[in-house]
Specification:
The structure holds two protein chains of two kinds. By secondary structure, chain A is an all-alpha fold. Chain A is built from three helices and no strands. Chain B folds into three domains: about 230 residues, Malonyl-Coenzyme A Acyl Carrier Protein, domain 2 (3-Layer(aba) Sandwich), CATH 3.40.366; about 60 residues, Alpha-Beta Plaits (2-Layer Sandwich), CATH 3.30.70; about 90 residues. The chains are: A mainly alpha, B alpha/beta.
Chain lengths: ~90, ~400
Amino acid sequence: MRTENSQLPQDIIRGYIMDNVSLPDLDDNFDIFDAGIVNSLFAIELMTFLEKAFSIKVTMEDLDMENFKSVNATSDFVLQKKGVQSA
Amino acid sequence: MKKIALLFPGVGSQYVGMSKSLYDNFPIFRETVDQAGDILKMDVSQLFFSPEKKEELNKLENAQVVLLTASIATYRVFMQEIGIQPHFCMGHSLGEYSALCAAGVIRFPDALKLVRDRALVVNEAAARIDGTMMWVVNLDVEILEEVCRDVSEEGGEIYISAYDSPAQASISGVTGVLMKAAKKLEEKGAIVYPLKLNGPFHCPLMKEASDKMKPLLQQYNYEKPGYTVIANRNAVPYKGAESVVDNLSLQLISPIRWKASVDYLLEQGTGTAIEIGPKNVLKFLMAKNTDAVKTYTTDSVKDMETISNEMLLDEDEYLNVIGKCLGAAVSTRNRCHDNNVYEEKVIKPYREVEALYNKFVESGTPPGKDHVKTAVRMLHAVLPAKEVPRDEQEYWYDKVVGNKIINF
């Protein structure tokens, strides 16, 4: 599935994370919360970004950090949300 | 000169391994941690650094003691290494105790006992209520107030417990009521983020704790603040030692007016803030409120070096600053028409600094801090003597040191 500007969700999410935490490189499976690189404030910033970038609504049921722990996890979450919301 | 505020974090900013490089590099940090341990008869350093103590650290009674200790230890390192006198101190919730301690209002040993007792009374009150707190982000506070009002009218206890920024607040209340409100808030576009807290803090549900805190606060003596301290409950500066008991007991049942406190800092011309303690929550909140205040963190030696490099005038720049003082003294228009005054208060001090400057240029030896001080003092005497308008004076005072500070 591709977004409007034909970038993969992974690319958009990875770009956002790398812009906001100074990381030279980011593996898509790397757990950024477990590594202590980001905290709950960043999680909220990330959720705010996801809502805007992918036109989804993040609710309390989604707040499991498993959903946002890595680029791939976040991307899966977005795709699942988009699937549910457009269905 | 833009004013400087010190910000002290509240519960939530603690983490295992916090400020480790400060602990390792500055004896005064270690001594402060040991001092806290001696006073409270507990191993405070274990709570700072031991991964096995993570759960213990996050218990309110430990988190409060550790954060106060971390902030005061960091404040002492900051004063020793950077030595900039702030104009304002303020702290978020528990951080208000740290701010008062840094401003000399509460003695550190007394503050330690007070925050330990504060955790006990708060936990006791919270145990009787099934309540908690949530962050409400990305929603205008006016809309949040409206939703809270609607839910209250239906009979549920819900309150705004912190006004952090124009689009971030926290709510406190009975858990079921908060869950109901959360749904409505999400419909309005908010992200609602439950905080892992065991009670509905900073709202009227904490009345019992507030009532118990008052006599505890009355046990101690308080000093006049050395810097202006801004109170959470009303965003107003402490008037003196007599404000302490009311402000800190009422803090427990009042929303934290952080946004209004930041607005006060802005009105007073604050341009720099330094978060004294672990993490960067208050730096984050500052950025959500304004881009007119640059905020520094102090969680590591590297953070301290950044502050030193960016804020303090380097020795290499001393001669340049003396030259700029001379330049500013001559390039301002004179409005003083009394020749005797002009000779005595403008020409004479100017010539003295000029001679000093020439001496350093000719000899090639670098001037010291005292010489810069003499030049800056000269400018501060000459411009008023030339009857330069106040705002123009300020312009020149800023210009000679750029955005740097000379810590005399």
